[in-house]
Amino acid sequence: MKKTWLSDVIGTEKAAFGLVHLLALPGDPLYDAEGGLERIYEAALADVQSLQEGGIDALHFSNEFSFPYQKNPPREIMAAMAYMIGRLKPYIEVPYGANVISSPSDSVALCASVGAKFTRGTFSGVYSGNLGLYDTAIGDYVRLRHNLHADDVKMIHYVVPESSADIGGRDPLASAVASKFMNMPDGFAVPGATAGQSADMSLLHQLRKAMPDMVLVASTGVKYETVDDIFSICDAAFIATSLKKDGIFENPVDKDRVKRFMEKLNDFRSSL
Q1: Which of 166, 224, 239, 252 has a CB 3.0–4.6 Å from the CB of 170, allowing a cystine?
Q2: Residue 89 confidence (pLDDT)
Q3: Are the C-beta atoms of residues 239 and 18 closer than 8 Å to each other?
Q4: Average pLDDT value for the chain
Q5: pTM of this prediction?
Q6: Helix (H, G, I), strand (E, B) or coil at 157
Q7: Contact 89, 81 (CB under 8 A)
Q8: pLDDT by residue (tens digit) across 26-80?
């Protein structure tokens, strides 16, 4: 098994990142004003504990329920996320990452502020999707990371963001190869169309052939039944929906489903 930065940062290759989907935050349309921040905290703490008790390798915090997403989220979103992660830190026993959806600069700043080890996002290119045109500025994000003295925060780049297409019609593989040369990615992530949908396996195979030493991450749709298929190509995976009660996106994390998933992943790792 080849060695990547995952061994140093996460403690294992073929790593499983369990998602902690924060409930809608202040300012979001779905925010529960009556339950307030306490309800968000209690739900997040329960998910953290279920993931860790189930044996997950790492956590990843995301404002998944900030529907509908914004291209430039207001500062209260990052502030609430920083508050939540800071309050949860005494209970976190594994490495963790974080991202503010659709805001790479906020993601980098958040990670630098709360001690997160990695982030994910659309860091380069221009895409058309459900948010309209989505532009990026990779040079700004890498410089921000450096200026915040957070060069050790790993940046995992989406090859193509969910439900989007490159406005220039560039081939995703060719785009990723160019990005590897110019943009200093720490890894590439391939999502499906939406949360819970399988990642593009064909593209993952192409990326692995073109970049045998690059960290590749399946970003959506990873489940118990696909552990062998996914991890035979990928170095890591973000897992969310399949670890929730009854495999439903809106539900809390199910510790037993986490344990079952990790038992199968551990069997796979031991076979390598």
Answers
A1: 166
A2: 98
A3: yes
A4: 95
A5: 0.96
A6: strand
A7: no
A8: 999 999 999 999 999 999 999 999 999 999 999 999 999 999 999 899 999 999 9
Q: Which two tokens stand for residue 61?
A: 């915090």
Burial of 257 (0-12, 13-18, 19+ CB in 10 A): buried
CA 36/CA 31 separation, integer angstroms: 8
| End-to-end Cα distance, the chain | 7
The confidence score (pLDDT) of residue 134 equals 87
| Separation CA 90–CA 113 (nearest Å) | 16
Helix (H, G, I), strand (E, B) or coil at 60: strand
Q: What are the C-alpha distances in Å from 192 to residues 161, 178, 197?
A: 9, 22, 5
Q: Which residue do the tokens 């953290």 mark? A: 48
What integer pLDDT is reported at residue 192 of this predicted model? 67
- Phi, psi values for residue 176, rounded to 5°: -65, -40
Residues near 95 by Cβ (< 8 Å), separated by ≥ 6?
A: 9, 10, 11, 57, 58, 59, 117, 118
Furthest CA-CA distance within the chain: 52
81 touches 61 (CB < 8 A): yes
Q: Which of 254, 215, 203 is nearest to 6 (CA)?
A: 215
CA–CA dist 120, 107 (Å, integer) = 8
Secondary structure (DSSP) of 163-176: T-EETT---HHHHH
Q: How far is CA 243 from CA 123, 139, 204, 251, in A?
A: 27, 35, 22, 9
Range list of β-strands (E), the chain: 15-21, 58-62, 96-99, 118-121, 127-129, 132-134, 154-158, 165-166, 187-190, 216-218, 236-239
Q: Beta-strand (E) ranges in 22-57?
A: none
